[in-house]
Design a protein that fits this description.
- The complex is a heterodimer of chains A (245) and B (253).
- Chain A has eight helices and no strands.
- With 245 residues, chain A is an all-alpha fold.
- In chain A, helix 3 packs parallel to helix 7.
- Chain B folds into two domains: 167 residues, 3-Layer(aba) Sandwich (Rossmann fold); 64 residues, no CATH class.
- Classes of the chains: A mainly alpha (245), B alpha/beta (253).
- At the A-B interface, helix 3 and helix 4 of A face strand 6 and helix 4 of B.
């Protein structure tokens, strides 16, 4: 485990050192960015809408019964922007995009494509890891902003439609605006940026250390997704502690 | 040795006491041999004898536990010797990037290192694909090619580098006899045209004796014999004789 962590830190550091090459790799960054958006946008939309709705459904009646109807918008707003959108979207992207990264790089490793790159003096970190890491680091925070907006909309619509909550649409957003500050949204988006780096590094690393044939690729994909989720939750706690200060 | 050796385009390789183990299993047990500039040197041996591992050491994909490899007298461990000389490797599977077209694969070295403008790269790619008999396949994906065509495309990719040393890992494995002959002819004609040093790893005896200037037979990480094809054929070493004469005979009883 410690060897893996060390290798991931080195991989991340080498990718940072390769950042000046990003402009040269812009086409690959754009391709990856498009892939992430194209593959995830609909799922992000559905997931965020219903997460917002469920939070409203769970908290709304309890708050309304206690005469705290004005807090519903704030509770839903804070829960989504500070916690649920960044964590849930990062887990979704780990499963949807991280697995694909690990599988593609793992397959290239197994079928000697990465060896072929090395013999041509093409650095696999610059060619494969850098575009993926840059694309996910840009795409995930954008998806999280989109997710926050859709989640709030879901919460608002459920609050309007559910008879046990029954809060007007404008009133929901007025109370949300009173409670949620821009800083809260920025915190959530910042967390997603860190999670994106975690998912990108973990999944690319798992791909690069793939051994064996198709079974090895399968193992790498599973490990990439599981390790990403564990690290997302761990980093979530650490970042929340830091950002709460 | 081939005629093109006079222009000394290829580089000489010296392998000194090369040792490598994986998980306690010794794969290379102290290999020593020289490859002359412009020579076609074939390393033969049964599967699992360490041939492919040796090739990976030559292009820096593996680090030796002990020993050294010298290119034109310079150790590949020192500085940027591997980038100073133009080396290319044709992998057993071809090693083509499956996400790129054949044309993009062949031109990858030039495009990634920004050595030529795109129009010039396209021209060179067409030219190299024509040389290996794959004209018109630029837009195809590697998955649309047969095994022999993939290997020829890999050779075209190697040619783009204008290599001084080209390494072939089992170039005729998984190929039908006709495709194997085409690949063998390609290895020889490339060597004659450019004087490139060629190091071929194979267990294909016909290929080895057909193309080689010199042959080494390797067994369990040790070299059993080195010499011209004729000298190796005459070798009295029992393991060499066994390897060279191995053949299946159906028992009629």
């Amino acid at each position: 485990m410690f060897q893996n962590i060390g290798e991931m830190v080195i991989l991340f550091w080498r990718t940072l050192l390769a950042l000046p090459q990003t402009w040269r790799q812009r086409q690959k960054v754009f391709d990856q960015f498009f892939e992430i958006g194209n593959a995830s946008l609909l799922m992000v939309c559905i997931l965020s809408f219903f997460i917002g709705g469920v939070i409203a459904l769970q908290t709304g009646p309890v708050l309304v019964e206690r005469g705290l109807a004005s807090a519903v918008g704030g509770v839903v707003g804070i829960a989504i922007c500070k916690e649920l959108a960044p964590v849930m979207m990062s887990i979704l992207i780990a499963g949807r995009i991280g697995s694909a990264m690990a599988a593609e790089i793992g397959s290239m490793r197994v079928y000697q494509e990465i060896d072929a790159l090395r013999t041509m003096n093409i650095n696999p970190i610059t060619y494969l890891v850098l575009p993926r890491l840059v694309a996910i680091a840009v795409a995930l925070p954008l998806l999280v902003i989109f997710s926050i907006l859709v989640g709030w909309l879901g919460g608002a619509l459920v609050s309007v439609a559910n008879t046990r909550i029954d809060i007007p649409f404008e009133s929901f957003f007025t109370t949300l605006d009173d409670v949620v500050a821009l800083k809260d949204v920025v915190n959530g988006v910042f967390k997603s940026f860190i999670f994106a780096l975690v998912v990108g590094t973990v999944c690319c690393h798992q791909g690069l250390i793939t051994r064996g044939g198709p079974r090895g690729i399968g193992r790498s994909v599973t490990k990439a997704v599981v390790n990403s989720i564990v690290l997302i939750v761990l980093f979530d706690y650490i970042l929340t502690r830091i950002l709460l200060r | 040795m081939n005629q093109a050796n006079s222009n000394l385009h290829g580089v000489g390789v010296q392998v000194r006491g090369l040792q490598k183990s994986f998980g306690g299993q010794r794969v290379l047990k102290g290999l020593d041999f020289d490859v002359q500039p412009g020579e076609i040197f074939v390393i033969m041996g049964p599967s699992g004898s360490g041939k492919s591992v040796l090739l990976k050491h030559l292009v820096g994909l593996e680090e030796p536990d002990a020993g050294d490899i010298l290119i034109q007298g310079e150790s590949i461990r020192s500085g940027d010797v591997l980038s100073k000389y133009r080396l290319a490797m044709v992998f057993q599977s071809g090693g083509l990037l499956n996400s790129l077209t054949v044309g993009e694969n062949v031109g990858l070295y030039l495009s990634e290192h920004r050595l030529k403008p795109p129009e010039e790269i396209a021209r060179i790619v067409n030219e190299k694909l024509e040389v290996v008999g794959l004209a018109g396949t630029q837009e195809k994906m590697p998955s649309e090619l047969s095994g022999g065509m993939r290997k020829r495309a890999a050779i075209a990719r190697a040619l783009v580098i204008e290599p001084q040393l080209i390494l072939y890992d089992e170039p005729t494995s998984e190929l039908d006899p006709l495709s194997a002959v085409i690949i063998a002819e390609e290895i020889v004609s490339l060597n004659q045209r450019t004087g490139v040093t060629s190091l071929v790893v194979s267990h294909d005896r016909e290929l080895a004796f057909g193309v080689a200037d010199r042959v080494a037979v390797i067994h369990e990480g040790r070299i059993l014999t080195i010499g011209t094809p004729e000298q190796v054929r005459q070798c009295a070493e029992p393991l060499v004789r066994e390897f060279l004469s191995a053949g299946f005979k159906r028992n009629s009883s």
